[in-house]
Amino acid sequence: MNKLHKKQQLGFTIIELTLAMTMLSVMMLILVLSTMQLVSVFNKGITLKRVNQSGRTVGAELQNSLRHANSTQLNIRQSTLGGNTVVTGICTGNTSYIWNIYAKDSSNPDNQLSTSIKYSDEAKVGFAKVADPTHEVCNNPSDSYRVPRGGSKELIGDGLVVRQPTTVAFAPGGGLVSVTYTLSTDSVEDIDDSTGRSTCSGGQVHDFCALNTFLVTAYARGGV
Amino acid sequence: MSFRSKQGDTLIEVMFATAVAALLIVLALTIMNRSLAQIQMAVETTFVRQAIDGEAEALRYIRDQYANHASLGSAQYTAVWQSIINDHLQSSATPFGKCQPSVTGDPYNDGGEGSTKAFYIKGTTSSNPDNDAVGISALSLHPIASLSRSETYAQVGRGIWVEAVKGGGVAGSETKYVDFHIRSCWDPPFSTNEKATIGTIVRLQYE
User: Fold this and answer.
1) Which residues of A touch B36 (CB under 8 A)?
2) Which residue of A has its CA nearest to B52?
């Protein structure tokens, strides 16, 4: 009994401790890496879903408005960004759509440029649907124009922005309209604009980055 | 009892706990990856659905240009419509869920040959192949032979095609119509052997 008691008080040898600590370290490492991977996959899923959901919302609204539009009333709004002309809106009759375009600053890659279209409360527009029977969105392309908060609806979620390519094209006769729009997360680090077409590396340095280009083609037959 | 409680866990207990933790992590990762694949599939389905809707709108536009003869460019679209009616009508369409040989790259081995009269409508003047919107400025009919396999999701001319099935001829009715079967086929993300397919049917009267 005394011998047993003595043995119990001996504790662990340095070999036992080293082995135990090594095993524990490996287990902890695997656990931490797995948890990071889980969080990364979760963030990626959430981000992809947000971009897709906003893209579908914009597409459904645009298609509905364009289908009911009279082709003679269709018009676009253009702005200047970094010396280039970009499309920042489309007027479909009673309803117009207006958005800010974001692009990486070529002279300072850590910075990003954007057009400066704002709501009446000075908040920046993402991609808005506006009740606009007078076509003010297209008739007044200056930065002083303010989108009325009361008569508009923001279509994309927080943290999403519109990038290039975002274009509007008309078939001869004007009745068939194609709107290409690119939605992405607003992080500048993982976006590459060097080719004139934004791409996203999907990096996980910060939040997950996602970028999708959607295409809506609609036949404006409101006047037919 | 007191002596036993001071002993700590046995090696078997530690190994068992580790195995359970590992199993849970693997299970969670599998579920997350599967849901990620489903989200990616939803994104691709959105793109393909938009392209199919666009193709349907282009067909409606061409039909109306043919019917109206009024707007600019109607002669061009009249020719496209007449080409459909004269050369591309077929008596039945490929069943839903099937792919064209040129889309899959494999012989069409589960329902006979693919349609040789199928086609797609797409513009050809785009200087930027990534910008499909520009292509609507010169819509034209392309035969099925020029259909290619999509690299990612299906796009018009790359995995999306149209089959025109002749309708009408109902006794006592002079109405003629065409059922346009717009189909798509592409490799889904995190691919299995199954192809992803979506389709719709648009009925257009023309006389």
Assistant:
1) 41, 44-45, 48
2) A217
Mind listing the pLDDT tens digit for each residue in B23-45? 888 888 888 888 888 888 898 99
Q: What is the CA radius of gyration of chain A?
A: 27
Query: What would the pLDDT profile of B142-166 be if each residue is shown by its tens digit?
Result: 887 777 777 778 888 888 889 999 8
pTM score: 0.82
Q: For residue B139, which residues of chain A lie inside 8 Å, CB to CB?
A: 171, 176
Identify the residue among B5, B30, B32 best suited for mutation to test binding to A, counting A beta carbons within 10 A and taking the highest. B32
Mutation choice for A interface testing from B132, B140, B184, B204 by most A CBs within 10 A? B132
